[in-house]
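Annotated sample (chain length 341).
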Amino acid sequence: MIGLKDKKILFLSVSFFKYERAIAKRLTEIGAEVDFYDERPSNSNFSKGIIRLNKKLYQSQITKYYNDIVSEIQHKKYDYFLLIKGEAIPVFFLEKIRELNPDIEMIYYNFDPLKEYPNLISNLKYFDKKITFEYDDSVTYGLNFRPLFYLDEYKSLHQNAKATEYDIVFIGSAHTDRYIVGEQVKAKAESLQLKTFFYYYAMGKIAFRIKKLIDKNLKKFDNNKLSFEKLSHQQIIDYYQKSKSVLDINKPFQYGLTIRTFEVLASGRKLITTNTDIKNYPFYNPKNILVLDRDNIQLDSDFFKTDFEHLDEKTLYMMSLDSFIECLFIQNQDEYWNTYR
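Output written by the structure step:
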């Protein structure tokens, strides 16, 4: 079991589909005392957009929010400070944490490429341990490398099999060229008489309209195929249960593996992905994972005719949330994850 019993952890994270809450919950379950705060003052579409485009325009709200956190924690002593991503966090807060807790271990994790968020680079110097899901960033900036994880409810999925209704399921937010690639995959699947379910999600109507004006890829989007309702983990699991495989479409400039990758494989479903870097991971198996060229979409009908080859227990553990937590707090895993580099 992870050795964090009675350790006091200050944890700030960007909101990402409630995975941050799952991390905090698991830390508590294994005996840590966790104070969790969202790293953004607000998760409205407006505030997210302002923070991302020009944080200075939102600086007064950010300063007040973080001063309030300091007031709440200034008399507490922590063993660890964990920050995930950190789009909004101000430098004065990072400095204050160290001042209040001179012996604290400060840990940083990022699940987005730093070339997409270059403003995050200047904060790296404040941390003792810096970890990324993007291999190239680990090399460029001297960071530890650790991919994302799956939640345990996905691992138990293959034990509760349902009759297969779909050959391919896609569930994902609308961004970059996802719609273009997704529709090409869907057309190829239909030509092979494969059954599909595609669910494109957007955070809000106004935000999507603005993005559509800017992003040439989104201009091709058929709004009738778009939903503004986010599916819960249980709803996603239900669709996975009914499908032979799940499609993953990464951002064109991102090679770190999405969390969907781990959930799909842990659930015993085949994965179809546009992320070619997946071939460099210990769990890569062409019988389970079909890698697509996003510029020349081709499906292999034979891929859908064979069963999923289940992963061994060590591999499943290394992909798990517990292993992720161990990497953050206890021991880095670069040697394991770099095995096939």
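Annotation: The mean pLDDT is 90.
Annotation: The CA atoms of residues 201 and 230 lie 7 Å apart.
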